[in-house]
């Protein structure tokens, strides 16, 4: 998609131009989502495949014959299929020609692929263009927003269904599996490993669910997301199996107040760190001072963590079209935790919440 390729080139530092940008996928665990960003493909795996971006041209997709049919669905792209590694190298040489400065997405390119380029173009300088890629991908276009909306719609529907899933004795793993099934029945896949915490396990922000049974009085923290056509959503909601005790309600209310105030500041033109600091200030003025132990949120899109975020050190200024999570939390080891999270679209008039399902503490009869 030429417009997205152009966005990346436009975001480059004018003092450090490049002749081309090369996006190189490795194995399944080392796939650069920027390949899908510039191509717009929603099918295929594209292990080992490459995208070459040249100023003012449609993206060139260099794909194995295994992926040729999937790549053909890419809009505004030129597809070059190869049957073996030697053919891949020849296509690269033809496209890059006498390029002297080649841009790479530093954090996403495997070292083996860097070595391939060094051997193929020994005179060329390899430049890390991660910052330009992150800048381009932070502001979503209309098609990207539509896909994120679709993912958020599924997530919201599943979150509303969770109370009906709860039953005494079920394990965290049982509930995680039911959530995954509900997502799949709606045409999505899980965007990341679902976090299900019963009781005191909620104090661990990135907890992995286990064979822990649900019992009356447990506060339940569930953090999950949906992926639709490779675009992600992210939500955290709180439930109570039984009636909330005063201390549980108090912890929840503090986090809810922090999120509400942070959302009021989530608008275009606002420094991201200011939004984080507002949520942190509210929590630190309570008995839970120091128990908000992570950044307020992160950009989301093709990756769950899509570059840039809201934290105390963030240099980011919010822009219309950015999609962020807003997720303050309080975590007390041995007691439990509360996190409330929405996926939101930043606009000039404030945030549009894309996950509008109730965020109240939902009490479910034990």
Describe the fold and architecture.
This protein has 366 residues and is α+β, with helices and mostly antiparallel strands. It folds into 2 domains: 2-137, Creatine Amidinohydrolase, Chain A, domain 1 (3-Layer(aba) Sandwich); 142-364, Creatine Amidinohydrolase. The protein has 10 helices and 20 strands. The chain has helices at 2-11, 34-39, 68-71, 85-96, 111-120, 130-138, 142-165, 172-185, 246-265, 272-284; strands at 20-24, 50-53, 60-64, 78-82, 101-104, 125-128, 189-190, 195-198, 219-224, 226-228, 231-232, 235-241, 297-298, 309-310, 323-326, 329-332, 336-339, 342-347, 350-353, 362-364. A 6-stranded mixed beta sheet has the order 4-3-2-1-5-6. It has a 4-stranded mixed beta sheet with strand order 8-9-12-20, with helices on one face. A 3-stranded antiparallel beta sheet has the order 7-10-11. Helix 1 (2-11) crosses helix 6 (130-138), helix 7 packs across helix 8 (172-185) and helix 9 runs antiparallel to helix 10. The chain is elongated.
Quick structural gist:
The protein is an alpha+beta fold and 366 residues long.
CATH superfamily of the largest domain: Creatinase/methionine aminopeptidase superfamily
The beta-strand count equals 20
The main sheet orders its strands as 4-3-2-1-5-6
Number of helical segments with 4 or more residues: 10
Distance between the first and last residues' Cα: 52 Å
Shape: elongated
The CATH architecture category of the largest domain equals Alpha-Beta Complex
What are its keywords?
10 helices; Creatine Amidinohydrolase, Chain A, domain 1; 366 residues; 22% strand; Creatine Amidinohydrolase; single chain; 2 domains; 6-stranded mixed sheet; elongated; alpha+beta
